[in-house]
Amino acid sequence: MGEISQMEAMELEGIEECPVKQVELTVPKTDDPTLPAVTFRMWVLGLGACVILSFVNQFFWYRKMPLSISSISAMIAVVPLGHLMARTLPHRVFFKNTIWEFTMNPGPFNMKEHVLITIFANSGAGSVYATHILSAVKLYYKRKLTFLPALLVMITTQVLGFGWAGIFRKYLVEPGEMWWPSNLVMVSLFRALHEKEKRPKGGTTLNQFFLLVLISSFAYYVLPGYLFTTLTSFSWVCWLAPKSILVQQLGSGLNGLGIGSFGIDWATISSYLGSPLASPWFATANVAVGFFLVMYVMTPLTYWFNVYKAKNFPIYSSELFKSNGESYDILSIVDPVFHLDKKVYAQNGRVHLSTFFAMTYGLGFATLTATVFHVLLFDGSDLWRQTKSAFRGNKKMDIHTKLMKKYKLVPTWWFLVILVLNVALVLFTCEYYNESLQLPWWGVLLACAIAFFFTLPIGIIAATTNQAPGLNIITEYVIGYMYPERPVANMCFKVYGYISMTQALTFVSDFKLGHYMKIPPRAMFMAQVVGTLVAVVVYTVTAWWLMEEIPHLCDTSLLPPDSPWTCPMDRVFFDASVIWGLVGPLRIFGVEGEYGNVNWFFLGGALAPLLVWLAHKAFPDKEWIRRIHMPVLIGATSMMPPASAVNFSSWLIVGFLSGFVVFKYRPNWWKRYNYVLSGGLDAGTAFMTILLFLTLQSKNIDLQWWGNNGEGCPLAACPTAKGVMADGCPVA
């Protein structure tokens, strides 16, 4: 394929449409290959953004409301800095006529170097999941873990994903149908920040609209973020009966079913499911149906019919209990060599889960099998056709793939070398530090095999729906049966099997962004590798520093009642390590446990997409049947806990208004402003959150009045079984 000039691309634009309407409306079909991408400005601003975001995100990770600052904030913040550097840096050329030739100022600040800066920022914006291992071992189990093995685990889990990304990029990047919806937000913002346009009569330019949204969301967030925090979960139903456990279970958005609850707060709306403005309507509708069935059908039925002694525990909780509803003392069942103390466990009795928590694990089982069967049934023939055409070299290309042909591709062997070296380092780390990490060599290879098997099917779902089912449950399940009673081995297996796949999808998504923005692939690869390594080091050092500096970090039994350092995400991870690693699935979901029937969800998940596929074949003219996406529908509530009902209800309302109402009835407005609106809301909220923390919250300057007393549903977390006692709860 020869090179395609900008003029030729413009001619193609009229005759070649992208297969996805949203991409057709959003992504430009032109390219200027003369724009420099790898510049001095890119290195300075990119590395700076990566370091700052890594530090800030890890700092906020341990807090009660874990804030995640997205790369969009850095993407916007570097624009004035980039233009300032373009105006002030010297144009002198260094090392002229050598391979090292460069200039600090190659000309105006351009979109391509801005994209690479954002890729660096992305590395810092995504959390390093392996820090959970650090937190669980040092803060919850209160055991020793030295810095070097911790750093090696964190580096290898992040880098392992490059191998899978390189192997599957031809399926997940080049086809036009793999459109990665969230990237369209970024494309819209880049265009808004760089493309010059005249203000339409009676309207605004994209830049002006973005600034208006940013300023408005920045100013507004002072209300839910500080002055009136009840807006994060406005649970008015609870106020109707302040002494009724039932009413508060129904109305609480944080600890109950969330009927009538909503959040007028962008952080509440987008914190766990991402921006609803970036979600295609069919995916939003599947999430809505899944959430309704889980929260308003399954949960009430299992609770009020007292399935698995549901009334002994809160209706919504991720904690672990004894059969009488008391919290389980986990440290008492850990022996000196960090294995399960079977004698003490037998004395204490079985670990019990809230029924909601047990059911979410069942839904995780179903999501896993539904993912495999959905992709086989609905995408299997396409995958087979793509595979055959790829080997024959005659695959069909859309306009964006044609435009990218002028750049050198990243050879697959680069990815394979990284993969082989990384797996070797993982094997060395787990064998040399086996006393600390517990994972044997065969566990490493099995984790890699699971990640390899699931990266493609889950990648297809993420690329088309903006929702990615997690592998965390299956990895915990497999190693829990094969190598039980070793919690650290279970955690390490999970991060190698699950997070390497997640990282692969992050890298592939970034490659697709570069594909849309026409960034040279080798420059993208370089930015991803360097950014990932820098981010891992900063995340590790920051986490280590916080553990040394903050007394009783994550220990709610010793922290003050109003302390922000409660670590909700780490608590869920720790509880999972107890269920799957320390105690083991055999004693909970197997023959020695009482949740064995939950395993039937595996079969249900396999059958669900088959029923949809049969219906689609029977009624091929009914397009809505094809839109029933069982992995997304069943896995809708995979983020619960720690996500709660108010996060979902608020997200769904906004997703409906954007993806259905505006997209259908105001398509021109949606095309012009939807993704820019999302970016402005993200940025304004993030900037105000940081400002509030630095100026007020870090100095413990609080505002005490009823609007800051929470959602007002204190009884929602109470058990309702007769004779079961809990602090602050009436005895039934």
Molecular structure report:
It is a single chain. With 732 residues, this protein is mostly helical. The chain is 60% helix and 1% strand. The chain has 28 helices and four strands. It has a two-stranded antiparallel sheet. The protein has a two-stranded antiparallel sheet with strand order 3-4. A hairpin with a 7-residue loop joins strand 1 (93-94) and strand 2. Helix 7 (147-172) packs across helix 21 (487-517). It is globular, with a radius of gyration of 26 Å. It starts with 5 loop residues before the first helix and ends in a 37-residue tail after the last helix. The model is unreliable at 1-15 (pLDDT under 50).
Treating each run of at least 4 consecutive H or I residues as one helix, how many helices? Answer: 28
What is the 3D form? globular
Low-pLDDT stretches: 1-15
Largest sheet: 2 strands, antiparallel
| Distance from first to last alpha carbon | 75 Å
Structural class: mainly alpha
- Describe the oligomeric state of these chains in a short phrase: single chain
DSSP E strands, number: 4
Helix content class: 55-70%
